[in-house]
């Protein structure tokens, strides 16, 4: 299968294990795959989105230049395969990446795909074109790209300022589809046109999203399905009951919590379910540019008050992972080992001692038993966000912080935090690939649109560049661990835990692959088929 979710989220959340069902018999043509969707995306433009709520329904419309090979358990540079590109090669001291493009590919409106489309897509992402995205959350991915040049209709080159080996990994993410040059960004928000296995039919906000088979898909014989229909049901319990009752063929990817998985299996014992890490961290975002969280003592106290094991026990029955910015090992290739992780204030095993130190910091800042700090804790109106936010509010009481939950709808959440219109927030950060360049530059570099906390440390940012250019894997890992440790000590975006979640489908749905490395790997359902 060309790609995957794990949440994938999304997406996509990227390097972990996956599970697949062995096909029984020959694939059959036909059928509509019915899924529920966890909420209503703000629009249909993947490049303007920061949630796998957009990726899951709309990646089947598109293709990338390259994509991760889905049969391999753990994504790596060695598992990247061609898609709209037929081949690629590095040249010029590893500062030029050239792609030979597939010929004969058509956009869904019949126009031919050429190198001009690739250039237009990345010029917009780099902010170099007249047409602009309203939001551009991954612009930092391409800061090392000087320009994108074409040579004829079927060759395109990325010319870099310096070597960046991870560029190929970023291009393989489900957040990196190629857009058509002849369609405006505004049109892509409401009626996306791609080259992928499915064509867009309609998107009714808060109701449904419908896709239909692309009969002219360049990968002959695919997709098997006649279409995919998503019904938007924000209430997770209602959606799961509908799945159990047979109204849906499949759940929303990685939407089933560990406790709810037991309910699904008890009511639908034949359902096929897989639990995987999602490469999505649950974290705290703080507006450090405004009082009271411009005070580093308050930020540190808050991080030291966390009982991470309590979150994991309550929400996941122990089946989640504690780590820093990068996905914890062994699923993640870049996460800190146990010893350096537990040396960070707030990560040690003695929660009571950590909270005592946190109370001293709060008293230093002017708060105490007789003077509490009242804050609103903003979070997105999804159970995955609300549930840990409630636990966070309870834990902050131990250090004189009284939190009030402020629930925000999905369409407003990312614009709200991007413009820093909040004090304190409970956030989920999905990593599109398990590579430090994606996580560090996107979430922690000065001025990045997804740097919701206004964190800016130029010295650490220099280290981002050092690790980015390192080709020795072991040397790069040590650099990454040092950076991750500094980010946690700076309380840049305190990581609470890395989630695991389940995906379920009825046994007549065949060819499903669930990868645990990313919610955002562009799962396109082109190899899925129905045996009923």
TrEMBL record:
Q: Which GO terms of the molecular function aspect are on file?
A: peptide transmembrane transporter activity
* Cited InterPro entries: Peptide/Ni-bd, SBP_5, SBP_5_dom
Give the CDD domains listed for this entry.
PBP2_NikA_DppA_OppA_like_17
Q: Which residues form the signal peptide?
A: 1-24
Its cellular-component GO annotations read: ATP-binding cassette (ABC) transporter complex; outer membrane-bounded periplasmic space
Q: What is its main location?
A: periplasm
Which Gene Ontology biological process is one annotated for this entry?
peptide transport
Return any one Pfam family short name: SBP_bac_5
- Enumerate the subcellular locations listed in this protein's record, separating them with semicolons: Periplasm
Q: Which family does it belong to?
A: Belongs to the bacterial solute-binding protein 5 family.
Q: Which PANTHER family match?
A: D,D-DIPEPTIDE-BINDING PERIPLASMIC PROTEIN DDPA-RELATED, PERIPLASMIC BINDING COMPONENT OF ABC TRANSPORTER
Q: From the Swiss-Prot or TrEMBL record, give the protein name.
A: ABC transporter substrate-binding protein
UniProt organism field: Bradyrhizobium hipponense
